[in-house]
Amino acid sequence: MKGNEAIAEAAIQAGCRHYFGYPITPQTEIAAYMAKRMPKIGGTFLQAESEIAAINMVYGVASAGKRVMTSSSSPGISLKSEGLSYLAGADLPALVVNAQRGGPGLGGIQPSQSDYFQATRGGGHGDYHMIVLAPSSVQEMAQLTIKGFELADQYRMTSMILADGTIGQMMEPVSFDFDIKEQPAKPWATTGTKMAREHNVINSLYLNPELLEKTNIERYKKYELIAQTEAMAEEYLTEDADIIIAAFGIAARVSRNAVNEARAHGIKAGLIRPVTLWPFPSAVFAKAADHAKQIISVELSMGQMIEDVQLATKCRVPVSLCYRVGGMIPTPDQVYQAIVEANEKGGK
Amino acid sequence: MNYKRITLLAGHYGSGKTNIAVNMAMELKKEHEHTAIADLDIVNPYFRTLDSKNELEAAGIRLIVSPYANSSLDIPALPQDMYAIVDDERLYSIIDVGGDDRGALALGRLSRRIAEENNYDMFLVINKYRPLTPDAQSVAEVMQEIEEAGRLKFTGIINNSNLGSGTDAECILGSLDYAKEVSELTGLPLVLTSVEEKFYDELKGKIDNLFAMKLQKRPVD
């Protein structure tokens, strides 16, 4: 199935019965799939009048304690950003998918990873984070969608699937043999008091600055806990690696081929693939910096994740960038050449 | 295969229409000097007949495709020379109709003329392993939607069941009952079972009307 379909089916299997969206290439298959399936399983598919309307519908269903999602692509995510900030301010769980395309502006419809900053820094206004998951296969599109719903409920916050046009469009076999956990109780949800309890209030407006400060500080304690416990990365041949590639999503798949090519030529190359972009798997990079001579960040952007790699390694190792933008994808050969150059340079 | 003057391929998006269309055009060209392949997909800007432009042109097959296909301009444009399909009666063509009923809407511009001439086949391409068409009932629904949108009746079925790079002979054999059920439910004959050429020898004799295909596109590794 297609990557976008895998997300939609996984969401349904995770118990999501509410989808609100607005079409945009290259993620429209998610909406198309939901439009076909939701009416048949007692769910709601609604094509909103705009991205902004859709994200606010998500806010509504999340307040009522139900699993809910929306999806879009880069320009559409910018439109949703106000809503993302409100979801964070109201501590609401939701799943948002961004199948990134080239930017800025309307950009192009081809794949990109240039919304990394937007996603990992929150996107909208105010102090907040989203959990950001970066699938690099169609199987992982499904798997991380389920994980995304679980984390969102567990921490009462938004999970974002930061995919790209390639993974959204490509077709691979998928197994749906998932062990889906029961949804947690949501005693905070606005489900009606039945005259038996006080009203639950969902709100992001604080008239009292002291209370707003306290709420933000408490939220950041939660973020700290998530950073310690939920960071995920896949390591490939890193143990003895001199040259380490940092790459996520589609860039990681290309890089893996380049690493194999380098190994075949006797260069000790390895790959660290962050699966969570926020929290960033800093510890894995810090450990790799103990023995690596060079790190190359391979990105479909002008260099965004590279800053997190530099922070994680405290600049103990030179970090260079290998990139394509505008909807272009680096070839394995381009990445391999970057490895060869880095290897010749040596480094620390 | 015995081709009519116009062969249309329609079905659920991602069922494999474009691959079959390109392979059919190659085969058709061997029988007919004037052969064309037309890409009427107004839905998906990504996977297009144009990806095989070089092979098709080298074979001398006329390519009828929107000037915006494979560009980054995501608009549902039709090729201006698509009327050659119905106007030029020397021309034998394979038409790759876009996915689902939305894609088949584009056919409405040509369907009356095609039906009047009545020298056409329209094949429903099915894939058991696509998530929204796993059984005969769901295929029949898609079929009806496409017929209503495209205003043309199907004449046969092509079983293109595959799991992409995860396909094996067993997976293809496991789709035969499904194809049979679709055929019985829709009343349409099963015309071909299309498989990647590497499975042809293994499956020959086990499946009737086997059609070997070169895959035009490969998934990213």
What overall form of chain A do the CA principal axes indicate? globular
Rg of chain B from C-alpha positions?
16 Å
Report the strand count of chain A: 12
> What is the helix tally of chain B?
9
> What string gives the helices and strands of chain B in order?
EHEHEHEHHEHEHHEHE
How many runs of DSSP E, i.e. beta strands of chain B? 8
Largest sheet geometry of chain A = 7 strands, mixed
Low confidence ranges of chain B: none
In terms of per-residue confidence, which ranges of chain A show pLDDT below 50 for 5 or more consecutive residues? none
CATH class (first level) name of the largest domain in chain A: Alpha Beta
Regarding CATH, which class of chain B?
A: Alpha Beta
Order of helices and strands of chain A: HEHEHEHEHEHEHHEEHEEHEHEH
Class from secondary-structure proportions of chain A: alpha/beta
Mean pLDDT of chain B: 91
CATH domain topology of chain B: Rossmann fold
Principal-axis shape of chain B equals globular
* End-to-end CA span of chain B: 34 Å
Based on the coordinates given, report the CATH architecture of the largest domain in chain A: 3-Layer(aba) Sandwich
Helix content of chain B: 25-40%
Examine the secondary-structure arrangement and name the CATH architecture of chain B.
3-Layer(aba) Sandwich
How does the major sheet of chain B shape up? 8 strands, parallel
Write the layout of secondary structure elements.
The complex is a heterodimer of chains A (348) and B (221).
Chain A: H1 3-13, E1 18-21, H2 28-37, E2 44-47, H3 51-63, E3 68-72, H4 74-89, E4 94-100, H5 116-120, E5 131-133, H6 138-155, E6 158-164, H7 165-169, H8 209-229, E7 233-236, E8 243-246, H9 249-264, E9 269-274, E10 276-278, H10 282-288, E11 294-299, H11 305-312, E12 319-323, H12 332-345
Parallel strand pairs in A: 1-2, 1-3, 3-4, 4-6, 5-6, 8-9, 8-11, 11-12
Antiparallel strand pairs in A: 5-10, 7-9
Chain B: E1 6-11, H1 17-31, E2 35-40, H2 53-58, E3 62-65, H3 84-87, E4 92-97, H4 100-104, H5 108-117, E5 120-126, H6 136-150, E6 156-159, H7 169-173, H8 176-186, E7 190-196, H9 200-203, E8 210-213
Parallel strand pairs in B: 1-4, 1-5, 2-3, 2-4, 5-6, 6-7, 7-8
Helix pairs in contact in B: 6-8
